[in-house]
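Hey, quick one: can you model this chain's 3D structure?
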Amino acid sequence: MSPATVNTSPNNLQIDLDKVNADLANASAKQVVAWAAETFSSSLVMTSSFGSQAALMLHLVTRVVPDIPVIFIDTGYHFPETYQFADDLASRLKLNLKTYQSPVSPAYMEARLGKLWEQGETEEEQIKNLNEYDRLRKVEPMQRALKELAAQSWLAGLRGQQTDHRSALRTVVKQDNRFKVHPILTWTQKDVYEYLKKNDLPTHPLYEQGYKSIGDWHSTRPITAGEDERAGRFHGLKQECGLHLPTSEEEGESRDASML
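Sure thing. Here's the predicted structure for all 260 residues.
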């Protein structure tokens, strides 16, 4: 497959997104990863929240790019089981793990701003406070990680079935002047299950307790039968944590309005 690049200089990589998405339309997840590795070389990174089925992407990608930097955003509020799961997978898959945190400690944040995830009289105020929490604890560390690692592109394990925002994505997109590649965008939950089983990969320790989408302990709950897999996040107020959304002011306003 042609990389569909116009200019391959390190700081000015131009890609014809329409062409490359057409080229990759029938590609396997492994082929998409291989295309990204060939196109972006050492400026390719991946992210992992070490959520319920994180082992899938970590295994899939590191079979193709063994030493790829894996960015883990440590909010300071992950479940203890998440930290253990991250340690276990890092050891098992020999991950090149890069952990980033907010420069503002959880204690200092709470002393200054309170528990943002509990604040707000109206739904609009609650969403605004959750977005501020995400900006401090997730988005800023992620932007810093991408800058420090000189990332032109990052691989993310988003699937179209997960949220309305994700259902509208393409395999390769541009976000905040970087490219994002989604190798398993079209995968179903059945595809995920079969890959994990075939490769004898573990799920998050809380998965069997009903936690299908796992984030911070204060904003994650188990879901019940029939609920969407991300219904247990952010008290049902929004679907996205901010890492996979553009950060411009205009797009941020649109995001708030749509409750993503």
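One thing worth noting: The longest strand covers residues 69-73.
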